[in-house]
């Protein structure tokens, strides 16, 4: 007899846990804040569950999710977190390709249910590249200790360290990871200070090279892999920093000198592309055809800049330049101006051309080139088809937007933004439709919605990649910490 | 519970065993007392600082992120114990208890207290060694490591004690701790030996201990306590002077007491966990910059530390204060949300959370108001104002929000020996009756050195000019032997600005300044 009692109890308990849509509800026309803001977005059909937290203190929170013709009711946890089941989420996205997901939130407070205005997210049929590579570091200014380059699977929450500089090793900085067309069999990153060199993955081999050839005054900095050849264009920068005492901005990063070089990974040669005394060349980027190199350049009075950089920092304005490249001969033609931002009293940085060759995405602010520290920095897009330039109004925010990259299908962009708190950069994604229209940006989905709030490290240099990095962090560690940087031959 | 026989009578006590047992307790008690006094007097502030540098909060996520190795779990457990050092008394008791445990285990292993000193030594030497690690400003070794070592020692000692007991296979009564009659004497002599060893340590150690205490007092806003602690140090170093100055800023005595304090002037450099000196010449105490109103500079110092050593309650609480003054609500929320997860900083975080975005509440907090008053109005670059580095240095050329910032700026000018800049600001004091002592001395020094009658516009105390003239004459006489002159005049004129002007703050190293072109970027 006892067993039946137990079964009955279990059955009753189970029945009492079945979620029911509240009937006696008060409809509110106010906006209920959810963190992160995942409302009215266009999202990829292969993105990880976009968990969020409902702001405020509620006794209970329910989400009614409409997927096609089906309705699902989900209950938030005690903290107000709506956490989706990964498998179900992917099924819903697959079912809703090109359609909308409808969200309606219900909250219970003092035994009164409130229904909040519904919102929708459009599921784009276009997928996003499955991996994101970034560096995580506290937003320090000059020093480094614990930092790492990580790879995040965008279809799940899996994150893996590509390489980590930890407290146990000699202090070293790692930066500027770059890939050839989002492929990981051709990639590189720099190591500074101890173990200095550039780690280059060329097919199966990992090597460390010293890009500071005798005839060059600096080492390679910002990279751009040639789309088809085994070559990398780099900027070469003599960089310094200035620290504000008060005001909106906290830091200025300026170049006293800069130029462009090209590294041939097959021949282990490095050659100078441009290094004019009165011009600061920076941020190289290849056209997808590989026959044109795009970069930024600012005319300067080098004497003035060297003597008094603090008085001159806000007069530096960069234009977008381009120059033809002969792939068979490996030589460059004369440069020309693509976008003279300085004429508009603006300054650009990081031109990145979409893989389909139609758009040029860049960051623009009032002055300078390190726009991630400029609150006025926004993303703009040049359409090669109709020669128009316009800001990405929906994707931009009132804070700094800068380092950005395209997905391999040219439909998604990822960029760093300080919009959350003005201090910590987070990777944001936005959809660019076939007409070049942008959509509202959304932050990288995380397993627990409070993760971004509690994370005290910034995401730097987000790059979308089409495949995972196969080499283990131990393999990279072996090369970084155990291999001498191979000197490169200077090609005059 | 007292045992009773079946017939209800109590067993006859074994008198010898009873006395031995209680004497052993006395011996342990003495050991506890001696070690506790030693730890509390000499190292409780250090333990406080070490917990301040070590972040622990229990959550499933945190546990999941722990390095799944023996050392990873060891560090996690050590961080758990270290957090109790938030209260110096509690930290000292905990540390002592662990050491009593070690001593008891050794007692069981070796059978008697003949190794009494050895039982004291590991933890004491560890504490002495820790004071050399400069936790007051650096964090070259993770702060939980010393606690980890003590815990490991405790665990190993007891494992050994249990093993020894097992293999001896003696009956229970034979395994009883034997009382060594000379044990008490040995404990006391060991205790005094340790005290002697600690106090005989270099001046450096005394400075370090003073800084630890001042940092603790700073967190409790005990400004007078800070000044007293600084003035008790025989040969104070620059950091002691900096914290004293910070306290003077808050007591309002900066312009009358800044220069009656001489100190050594060693260079400070940030040191990596591997022990190498790092890029920036000086990473100054962020709280010192904060109290000079240099919130951005303080924030920068803190983020550099977080970058090099990781986030800790220390960085979080100061970054939260900076964010509050910078009116950066989300960032203040972030830091305070993290602090609120800790056991002991949660009340403070809760209190500060109420201030987010509420300028009235922020300015109602004396400490925050003090820094807010001194915040610069004009934007300049740190590089333009960097040399020399000390509290208020940057404000030499920057306008602050209140009259207090003018005082700080003038003190900074005097400190930096920028007499022209000082005189320019001193004009604001014309007609004032109670000009602070050092400002009067600064005005006279300017008049004497520039041979002007600048001082006649100010209300100067009678006799002050004559004293300065005498001092200047004597300095001229002793010019050939400056070191001798410094010593000869210290007693009589050590508190005078002119003395400071000639003999104080004369470091020759210039590594502190950094040009805009130096250093890379992250």
Outline the secondary-structure elements.
The complex is a heterodimer of chains A (492) and B (522).
Chain A: H1 2-16, E1 25-27, E2 34-35, E3 42-43, E4 52-54, E5 60-67, E6 70-75, E7 81-82, H2 86-95, E8 100-109, E9 112-115, E10 119-123, E11 131-137, E12 147-153, E13 159-165, E14 172-180, E15 183-193, E16 197-202, E17 205-210, E18 220-225, E19 231-243, E20 251-264, E21 269-274, E22 279-286, E23 292-299, H3 302-307, H4 309-312, E24 319-326, E25 331-332, E26 336-339, E27 347-353, E28 359-365, E29 378-383, E30 388-391, E31 401-406, E32 412-417, E33 426-431, E34 442-443, H5 451-454, E35 458-465, H6 473-482, E36 486-487, E37 489-491
Parallel strand pairs in A: 1-9, 3-10, 17-36, 21-37
Antiparallel strand pairs in A: 2-4, 4-7, 5-6, 5-8, 8-9, 8-10, 11-12, 11-35, 12-13, 14-15, 15-16, 16-17, 18-19, 19-20, 20-21, 22-23, 23-24, 24-25, 24-26, 27-28, 28-29, 29-30, 31-32, 32-33, 33-34
Chain B: H1 15-52, H2 60-65, H3 70-82, H4 88-110, H5 116-131, H6 145-168, H7 183-199, H8 203-219, H9 223-231, H10 238-251, H11 254-257, H12 286-291, H13 295-309, H14 313-325, H15 329-339, H16 346-353, H17 359-364, H18 366-374, H19 382-385, H20 403-415, H21 419-426, H22 437-450, H23 464-477, H24 482-493, H25 497-503
Helix pairs in contact in B: 1-4, 1-5, 1-7, 1-8, 3-6, 4-5, 4-6, 5-7, 8-9, 8-10, 9-10, 13-14, 14-15, 15-16, 20-21, 21-22, 22-23
Characterization of the model:
The complex is a heterodimer of chains A (492) and B (522). Chain A is mainly beta. Helix content of chain A is 10%, strand content 46%. By secondary structure, chain B is mostly helical. Chain B is 61% helix and 0% strand. Chain B contains 25 helices and no strands. In chain B, helix 21 packs across helix 22. Classes of the chains: A mainly beta (492), B mainly alpha (522). Chains A and B meet through strand 19 and strand 20 of A and helix 13, helix 15 and helix 19 of B.
């Amino acid at each position: 007899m006892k067993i039946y009692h137990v079964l009955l109890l279990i059955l009753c308990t189970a029945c009492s846990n079945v979620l029911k849509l509240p009937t006696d509800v008060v409809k509110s026309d106010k906006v209920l804040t959810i963190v992160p803001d995942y409302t009215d977005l266009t999202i990829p059909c292969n993105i990880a569950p976009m968990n969020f937290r409902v702001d405020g203190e509620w006794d209970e929170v329910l989400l009614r999710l409409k997927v096609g013709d089906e309705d699902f009711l989900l209950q938030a946890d005690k903290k107000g977190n709506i956490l989706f089941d990964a498998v179900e989420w992917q099924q819903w996205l697959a079912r809703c390709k090109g359609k909308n997901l409808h969200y309606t939130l219900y909250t219970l407070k003092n035994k009164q249910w409130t229904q909040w205005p519904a919102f929708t997210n459009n599921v784009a049929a276009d997928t996003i590249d499955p991996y994101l590579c970034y560096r995580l570091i506290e937003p320090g200014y000059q020093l480094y200790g614990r930092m790492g380059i990580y790879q995040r699977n965008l279809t799940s929450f899996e994150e893996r360290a590509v390489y980590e500089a930890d407290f146990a090793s000699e202090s070293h900085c790692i930066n500027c990871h770059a890939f050839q067309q989002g492929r990981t069999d051709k990639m590189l990153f720099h190591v500074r200070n101890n173990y200095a060199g550039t780690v280059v993955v060329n097919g199966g081999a990992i090597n460390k090279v010293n890009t500071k050839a005798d005839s060059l005054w600096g080492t390679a900095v910002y990279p751009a892999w040639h789309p088809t050849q085994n070559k990398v264009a780099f900027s070469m920068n003599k960089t310094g920093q200035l620290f504000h005492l008060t005001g909106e901005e906290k830091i200025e990063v300026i170049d006293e000198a800069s130029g462009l070089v090209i590294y041939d990974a097959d021949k282990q040669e490095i050659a100078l592309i441009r290094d004019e005394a009165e011009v600061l060349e920076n941020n190289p980027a290849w056209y997808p055809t590989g026959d044109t190199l795009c970069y930024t350049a600012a005319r300067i009075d080098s004497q003035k800049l060297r003597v008094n950089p603090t008085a001159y920092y806000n007069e530096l304005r960069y234009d977008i330049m381009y120059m033809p490249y002969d792939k068979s001969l490996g030589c460059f033609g004369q440069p020309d101006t693509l976008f003279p931002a300085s004429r508009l009293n603006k300054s650009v940085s990081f031109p990145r051309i979409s893989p389909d060759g139609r758009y040029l995405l860049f960051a623009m602010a009032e002055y300078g080139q390190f726009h991630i520290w400029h609150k006025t920095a926004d993303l703009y897009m040049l359409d090669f088809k109709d020669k128009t330039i316009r800001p990405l109004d929906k994707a931009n925010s009132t804070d700094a937007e800068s380092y950005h990259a395209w997905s391999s299908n040219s439909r998604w962009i990822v960029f760093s933004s300080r919009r959350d708190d003005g201090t910590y950069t987070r990777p944001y994604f936005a959809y660019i439709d076939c007409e070049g229209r942008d959509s509202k940006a959304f932050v990288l989905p995380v397993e627990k919605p409070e993760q971004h709030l509690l994370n005290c490290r910034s995401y730097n240099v987000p790059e979308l990649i089409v495949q995972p990095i196969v080499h283990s962090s131990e393999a990279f560690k072996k090369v970084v910490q155990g291999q001498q940087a191979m000197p490169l031959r200077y090609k005059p | 519970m007292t045992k009773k026989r079946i017939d209800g009578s109590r067993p006859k006590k074994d008198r010898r065993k009873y006395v031995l047992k209680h004497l052993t307790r006395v011996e342990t008690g003495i050991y506890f007392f001696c070690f506790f006094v030693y730890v509390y007097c000499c190292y409780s502030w250090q333990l406080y600082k070490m917990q301040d540098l070590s972040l622990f909060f229990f959550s499933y996520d945190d546990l999941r992120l722990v390095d799944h190795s023996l050392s990873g779990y060891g560090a996690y457990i050590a961080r758990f114990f270290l957090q109790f050092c938030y209260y110096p008394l509690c930290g000292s008791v905990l540390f002592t208890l662990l050491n009593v445990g070690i001593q008891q285990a050794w007692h069981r292993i070796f059978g008697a207290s003949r190794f009494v000193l050895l039982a004291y030594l590991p933890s004491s030497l560890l504490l002495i060694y820790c004071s050399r690690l400069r936790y007051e400003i650096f964090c070259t070794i993770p702060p939980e490591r010393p606690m980890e070592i003590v815990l490991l020692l405790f665990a190993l000692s007891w494992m050994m004690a249990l093993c020894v007991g097992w293999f001896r296979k003696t009956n229970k009564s034979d395994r009883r701790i034997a009382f060594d009659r000379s044990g008490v004497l040995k404990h006391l002599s060991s205790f005094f030996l340790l005290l002697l060893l600690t106090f005989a340590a270099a001046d450096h150690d005394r400075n370090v201990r003073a800084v630890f205490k001042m940092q603790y007092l700073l967190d409790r806003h005990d400004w007078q306590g800070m000044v007293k602690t600084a003035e008790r140090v025989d040969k104070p170093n620059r950091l002691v002077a900096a914290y004293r100055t910070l306290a003077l800023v808050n007591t309002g005595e900066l312009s009358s007491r800044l220069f009656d304090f001489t100190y050594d002037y060693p260079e400070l450099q940030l040191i990596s966990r591997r022990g190498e000196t790092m890029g920036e010449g000086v990473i100054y105490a962020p709280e010192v910059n904060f109290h000079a109103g240099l919130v951005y500079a303080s924030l920068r110092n803190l983020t550099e530390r977080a970058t090099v050593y990781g986030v800790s309650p220390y960085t979080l609480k100061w970054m939260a204060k900076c964010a509050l003054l910078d009116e950066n609500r989300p960032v203040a929320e972030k830091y305070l949300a993290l602090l609120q997860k800790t056991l002991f900083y949660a009340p403070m975080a809760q209190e500060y959370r109420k201030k987010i975005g509420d300028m009235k509440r922020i300015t109602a907090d004396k400490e925050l108001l003090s820094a807010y008053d001194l915040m610069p109005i004009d934007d300049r670059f740190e590089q333009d104002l960097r040399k020399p580095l000390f509290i208020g240095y940057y404000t030499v050329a920057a306008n602050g929000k209140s009259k207090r910032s003018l005082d700080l700026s003038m003190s900074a000018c005097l400190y930096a020996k920028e007499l022209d800049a000082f005189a320019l600001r001193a004009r604001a004091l014309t007609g004032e009756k109670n000009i602070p002592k050092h400002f009067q001395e600064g005005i006279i020094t300017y008049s004497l050195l520039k041979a002007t009658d600048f001082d006649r516009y100010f209300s100067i105390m009678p006799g002050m000019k004559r004293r300065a003239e005498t001092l200047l004459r004597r300095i001229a006489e002793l010019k050939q032997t400056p070191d001798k002159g410094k010593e000869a005049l210290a007693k009589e004129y050590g508190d005078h600005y002119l003395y400071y002007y000639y003999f104080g703050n004369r470091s020759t190293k210039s590594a502190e300044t950094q040009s805009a072109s130096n250093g890379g970027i992250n």
